[in-house]
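Repro:
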Amino acid sequence: MKHTIERAYGKLNLTLDVTSKRPDGYHDVCMVMQTVALCDDLAIAVDSGAPWRCWCSDPSIPQGAENLAVKAATTFFDALGYAPDGGAIMIEKRIPAQGGMAGGSADAAAVLRALSRLYDHPFDRPKLRLIAAEVGSDVPFCLEGGTQLAEGRGEVLTPLDPMPKATILLVKPTFSVSTPALFAEIDRAETLRRPDTARAIAALASGDLAALAAQMQNVFQPLVAKSHPEVEAICQTMKAHGALGAQMTGTGSVVFGVFDQEAKAKQAQEACRAFGTTCLTAPMAQV
């Protein structure tokens, strides 16, 4: 039996723009993405001789074939042309579900990294990224991590200068958001508040955290805030306690603030506890 453990790191959208709807029904996006240290822990065992199973500490997470971690394992072994004799994926969940932090995609990427290591890296990095893209649009970024420009469906990646050191405050409100409904609303919208991605990239290149925070913008946030004004309330509370910038990540509902001092982030954390089920600080991370 082969077995290993792997960490799955969450992501933040420093910018998020939807540029067009594609003929295949997907949307083209343009996003500056950043790995954050909040992570799930995975234990993976293969060739155990027992039927495959997936377990997650969060009972709301699917534990069958619809779980992206299971899909990642299936896709990996299909590409490898090998049928293992059973196995297990155990997920200790910390990334908030339905929060816009790519928790499922992060788990899938962790499975791909773990299986690649267990089987002596049978695929080169470009091939592993292609396998990741088969599993889900955010999985290639979660596989690579760091600070990246993501285009296409999210799978076309360009490495960027690292985000300057900062402390991130994460708040998950009690509500969740329907991603398909938000994309449908984007398609109907006549005007949208779009990020200036080029300026955000320039701020990264200059290492200017304040300038980067000033360019953070998520095209979905005003749409979500119409029904859930607490999104803006959380942002304003963070800024009132020293955040250089604050916004929603992905299609929500996690809101994050960027702080240049951990002490400020801790003060804001106390002020934001009443807003959500998750309220914690974390640094950036590299996969």
